[in-house]
Amino acid sequence: MLSTLNLSRLFFTGVPGSRWSGIAQTLELMLDVNSSDRTPERTYDHHSYSGHKGAYFGNGMELPATFDRQLIDSAWTKSGGIRIVKSHDWAYQLHELHDTLDSDEKIMLVYRPDMASYAWWHEAGGFQIQYPSYRWYENSHKMLQEIQTQNKLMLEFAYDVSARWEYFTSDWIKKTFGHNVEVKEFKDILVTIV
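User: That's the sequence. What structure does it adopt?
Assistant: Structure tokens below.
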């Protein structure tokens, strides 16, 4: 079981459309998460699903995906608690991020196959998503290429550090965090914490 008592930051990544934002919000409900990064401007709701809430970091986003903890922490208005630092761009720099982790930091990866993620991202609004900005991806063709690249880099990194992928289920949450939470389960979503 992962002790979250001394966890300050969870660097969190998944490709667009992987449903990673909903997973992050599930974790926020049960862990001692600092959600003071949430503002009306940092919110996007769609359908009856979770949408986007809180700060997102990376290319074209409000804040860059950087290892500067002071810059990262500037997105939160309160101290304490676990900060879930969400960025698609962590996928491009996982080894470097891993090498700079402090003892109170972890990385969480969310994997969903390329085409399922691509289709869901479009269903969730695609380039019409109001927050965060996806302009950096330019067009649907580039979006698919970046989803493929990000997934490939996450899988390679997980292999290199001997991470263990598991399905995101209520049993995984119980085993990993010690909480009984019912979640909607998907047969194509895998998670791991490094």
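The two ends are 13 Å apart (CA to CA).
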